[in-house]
Amino acid sequence: MLLRLLRTKQLQSLPERGFLMNLTQTKPNQNGVIIGISGDVHFANRVTSIGITEGISFQTVRNDRKMPVLIYLRETLIVINREDAEKIEVKTA
Questions:
Q1: Is the Cβ–Cβ distance between 87 and 38 less than 8 Å?
Q2: Is 68 in contact with 79 (CB distance < 8 Å)?
Q3: Has residue 6 been placed in a domain?
Q4: Beta strand spans in 1-93 (E)
Q5: Whole-prediction pTM
Q6: Mind listing the pLDDT tens digit for each residue in 44-90?
Q7: Residue 78 forms beta bridges with which residues?
Q8: Residue 29: enclosing H or E segment and its boundaries?
Q9: Has residue 2 been placed in a domain?
């Protein structure tokens, strides 16, 4: 009984699965969720207007060095330059 109680408490204290990173750190065919958007108000308005909002699921299609990041979300392919992609925080599965 005590062992079961300890296991339950350990499982409750573990964080959710997934890793926090910015969008430029994702790999091709990796799924994730947008967690946050940093930057000024102009940047936040710009990315929100094209469908990149907190809580939306996405899939990274292409992420080559020194090239824009290509993601698929809301049934749309979106290209984001690397500088902007670094301001988007995501959680991957």
A1: yes
A2: yes
A3: no
A4: 19-22, 31-37, 57-63, 69-73, 76-80, 88-92
A5: 0.77
A6: 999 999 999 999 999 999 999 999 999 999 999 999 999 999 999 99
A7: 71
A8: none
A9: no
